Amino acid sequence: MNVLFTSRSTLFTQPGGDTLQVEQTAKYLRDLGHTVDIKLCGERININDYQLVHFFNIIRPADLRLNIPKQIPLVVSSIYHDYSEYDKLYRSTSSKLLYRLFGKFGLEYIKVNLRWLNGSDTFPGLKFLLSGNRKSIKALLKQSQYMFTTSHQEAELIEREIGLVPPYKKVNLGSEHISVSPSSSREGVLCAARIEGFKNQLNLIKALKDTNIPLTITGAAAANHSAYYEACQQEAGENVSFLGRVSKEELEKQFGKAKVHALISYYETTGLSTLEALKAGCNVVITDRGAQKEIFGNHAYYCEPNDIASIREAVETALAGESNHQQWVEENFSWKKAAKEISDIYQSLMKDSTT
Hints:
It comes from Owenweeksia hongkongensis (strain DSM 17368 / CIP 108786 / JCM 12287 / NRRL B-23963 / UST20020801). GO terms for molecular function: glycosyltransferase activity. This is Glycosyltransferase. Keywords: Transferase. By secondary structure, the protein is α/β, with parallel strands linked by helices. The chain has two domains: about 1-80 and about 130-175 and about 335-355, Glycogen Phosphorylase B (Rossmann fold, 3-Layer(aba) Sandwich); about 185-330, Glycogen Phosphorylase B (Rossmann fold, 3-Layer(aba) Sandwich), CATH 3.40.50.2000. The protein contains 14 helices and twelve strands. The chain has helices at about 15-30, 85-90, 95-115, 125-130, 135-145, 150-160, 200-205, 225-235, 250-255, 270-280, 290-295, 310-320, 325-330, 335-355; strands at about 1-5, 35-40, 50-55, 75, 145-150, 170, 190, 215-220, 240-245, 260, 285, 300-305. The strands form two sheets. A six-stranded parallel β-sheet has the order 2-1-3-4-5-6, with helices on both faces. Strands 9-8-7-10-11-12 form a six-stranded parallel β-sheet, sandwiched between helices. Helix 1 links the parallel strand 1 and strand 2 (about 35-40). The chain is globular and about 65 Å long. The protein starts with a strand and ends with a helix. The model has no long low-confidence stretch (mean pLDDT about 90).
C-alpha cells in the first residue's frame, strides 16, 4: 500500500518525540511491505500517488492542508497535548493575559500565527485563519476515518475538549530503537528532553540544589525558549551538567550511567525518554499529568511538578529503589507490534473504501 505520512514543517529541524514516532512507525510499516513517504507541511505533494494519508499531531491542524479525495482514507495519530496548566501558571505576563482572554484554543491560534510571522514556521493557510484552532481540529477529526492514540485518557480529553472522537485504537509506542549496555555502577539523575518550561527542568534543578546528587541534562533549548534555558543555567549548582543536544550513541551512554531519569513535565502523552530510560535500566520519576499513570502504572515514581519538596522526595526514593523494568518494556512497547496493529487498520479501511 502507498501511504503518505505528513506532519509539521519543523519535524526534523526541531525534533521531538513525534519525530521518532513518525520515523519508527514508517520503518516498521515498510518492513510489512508498505511504501511510506514522509512529507512535511509546505512540501509539494501529489495526493493521487497515495492510497492512504496518515497525519500526525492533531493539536496542529493547520499543518494538514491537503485536498484529500473521499476515496483516500485519512487516519490520524493524535499526539494531543494539554498545555493549559503550564500556560496558566508560568507563561509570560502577556501570554497569561491572552490565555485568560481567549482560552486554550485562542492562545494556540495566536501562537500558530506568531510562528508564521516571526519566520519559524510556514503560513497556516486561509482556512485555518478563518476557522481558528478548535474548529480546525474538529473538522480534521470529522474528516478522519480512524485515530490512533497512546492512551484512553488521550481520547477522553479530546472528547471533552473537542466534542468529537472518530473510531480509535490505543497503540503503544515502541522501544526497539534504544540499545543500552548498562554501566556496572550507576549514579545520579538524567533528564533527556528539549529544554523548555513545559518540560520543567528548572524545578528539577531547584529540587536537587544543595544536594550531592549529580544531575545531567541533555537537550537543546526549544525554539523561543532561550530565556528559560538561561534561567536553568543561572539556577544550576555545581551538581548540574548541561550536555546540549547529543547523538543517539551518547544518549544511550547517559541512560546506561544514570540511576534515575526524571521527566517532570506538565503533560505527556507517553514521554518517549521515560520509556527509553526504563528499557535502559533506570528508575524513572514522572508526574501524574496526562496519561502517565495509565501508561506506566507502578513502574514509575510520581511527583507534583509544582512542588519542589515532592520532586526531591520522589528522586531520592527512586535513587534508593531497585530497577527491574526492562522485560516489561520489551513485552509491552514494540514498534513492530504497533506497525502490525496500524497496518491491520489500514487494510480494513481500504476494504471499506472499495465496497
